[in-house]
Design brief:
Order of helices and strands: EEHEEHEHE
Protein name: AMP-dependent synthetase and ligase domain protein
Strand content: 25-35%
Helix content: 10-25%
Number of helices: 3
Organism: mine drainage metagenome
InterPro entries: AMP-bd_C, AMP-bd_C_sf
CATH class: Alpha Beta
GO molecular function, one term: ligase activity
Radius of gyration: 14 Å
Number of domains: 1
Pfam families: AMP-binding_C (PF13193)
Length: 127
């Protein structure tokens, strides 16, 4: 239709293996999963250069952690370059007074228990 639509802030765009991706696109898929209450996706440094995708996931009350199921779901629903490399489950997403996710706090977060997609043998489909 000839218009540009901005879905995220430029500073939040993740550069992964030559692709630019908006965290919103990954979050919208994760948030549709039946066990997910809310998610926030950030770029984290990659040993290969650029960034890897990391998802912070707040589960619905009483739902057990199942990282493999979330990785498999993402691999089915997302293009290969958008599938998170890491998932970390958190009790609550840190928010501003306006209820926006504080991505900067999550980018710098250390000490959490993160799960790596490769540990579960998740195969990504390439075009």
């Amino acid at each position: 239709d000839g218009y540009y639509y901005f879905v995220d802030r430029k500073k939040d765009v993740i550069r992964r293996r030559g692709e630019n991706l908006a965290p919103y696109d990954v979050e919208s898929v994760l948030n549709r999963h039946s066990s997910v209450l809310e998610s926030v996706v950030v770029g984290v440094p990659s040993p290969l250069g650029e960034e890897d995708v990391k998802a912070f996931v707040q589960l619905k009350p009483g739902v057990p952690e199942d990282p493999k199921a979330l990785f498999e779901y993402c691999a089915r629903e997302l293009p290969f370059f958008m599938v998170p490399q890491y998932i970390e489950f958190i009790e609550a997403i840190p928010k501003t007074a306006n209820q926006k996710a504080q991505r900067f706090q999550l980018r710098g977060r250390t000490g959490g228990r993160q799960f790596d997609r490769t540990d579960f043998g998740i195969q990504l489909r390439k075009p």
